[in-house]
Design brief:
The chain has 274 residues and is an alpha/beta fold. It has a single domain (8-269), classed as Rossmann fold (3-Layer(aba) Sandwich). Helix content is 34%, strand content 26%. It has eleven helices and ten strands. The chain has helices spanning 8-13, 59-65, 96-102, 117-128, 134-144, 148-151, 164-176, 194-207, 220-226, 253-258, 263-269; strands at residues 21-30, 33-43, 48-52, 76-84, 87-88, 103-106, 182-186, 212-216, 229-237, 243-252. Strands 5-4-1-2-10-9-3-8-7-6 form a ten-stranded mixed β-sheet, sandwiched between helices. The longest helix is centred in the C-terminal third of the chain and has 14 residues, at 194-207. It is globular. The protein starts with 7 loop residues before the first helix and ends in a 5-residue tail after the last helix.
Length: 274
């Protein structure tokens, strides 16, 4: 690894192996509270990996650690290592802003900027001073997000004029505009109706051949429908009744939903707990 791997080229081309995200014995703390512990897994390149588990098991906490979003929380820290294409993203010489460019994130609720539809998508490429014609970049991102045909005649209108489902696809387009290699999605459909949810799921299916997607979802049916791999998180409770998230099982989605190897996974999937 070079002394200062802050550029796109360095983060994109260094490292080895086919797994773009590798977590090794990861623990996440908020102050002295251990929210997640002992997470070790390798996310395969391309495709969709789902993270499931009961509320409070650390799904979103772990997801946010993958692109250093937890850095923005006072008192948060990560132990262990998370590798992006072979580079430890928590190394002192790695720029977290560049990490977040390569590993984009879509949140639970749509969060468009108070700008026009065009300016929402153009924001990242402008800040990053990306080469190329800006209108072409915006159109390409909106097409990839399956939104172009719905907004091409109103690009100068406020992003808030869009429906909730359209706003979420706009946020996906905003991520795609800076060409990430990994896309994190934190319960992206939980605030959407079934029709909008179906469109987001269809979109994920179209993107998975080009981008590695990791989705946190409370909807097990959604995980079964869209993902190729699934991680199941649960909670351990200590003597002081403090709850810590743990990775119980990580496997092929079909295998996990038909013949899980851990009884806790089976209990959660069958609805006996969680």
């Amino acid at each position: 690894m070079s002394a200062n791997p802050t550029t796109t080229e360095e983060l994109s081309h260094q490292g080895s192996g086919t797994a773009p995200i590798v977590a090794r014995d990861v623990a996440v703390y908020y102050g002295d509270f251990k929210a997640v512990t002992g997470v070790t897994l390798e996310v395969p390149e391309k495709g969709i990996t789902a993270i499931i588990g009961p509320s409070g098991c650390g799904k979103s906490t772990f997801l946010r650690s993958i692109n250093r979003m937890n850095d923005l929380v006072p008192g948060a820290r990560v132990e262990g290592s998370i590798l992006f294409k072979g580079i430890d993203i928590y190394a002192a010489d790695v720029d977290p802003v560049e990490v977040r460019r390569r590993v984009g994130m879509v949140f639970q609720k749509p969060n468009p900027f108070p700008k026009s539809i065009f300016d929402n998508v153009a924001f990242g490429p402008k800040v990053q001073r990306m080469k190329g014609d800006l209108p072409d970049i915006v159109e390409s991102a909106l097409r990839r997000a399956a939104l172009w045909d719905e907004v091409k005649d109103k690009l100068d209108q406020s992003a808030f004029s869009l429906s909730g489902g359209q706003q979420q696809r706009l946020c996906i387009a905003r991520c795609l505009a800076v060409e990430p290699e990994v896309l994190l999605m934190d319960e992206p459909c939980s605030a959407l109706d079934p029709i909008a949810t179906s469109k987001i799921e269809d979109l994920m299916g179209e993107l998975k051949d080009d981008v590695t997607i990791i989705i946190v979802t409370h909807n097990m049916q959604q995980a079964a429908r869209v993902s190729t791999m699934t991680a199941f998180f649960a909670t351990d409770v200590d003597a002081s009744e403090r709850r810590t998230g743990v990775l119980v099982e990580f496997d092929d989605t079909t295998q996990m939903f038909t013949a899980p190897s851990d009884p806790r996974t089976e209990g959660y999937i069958t609805g006996r707990f969680g």
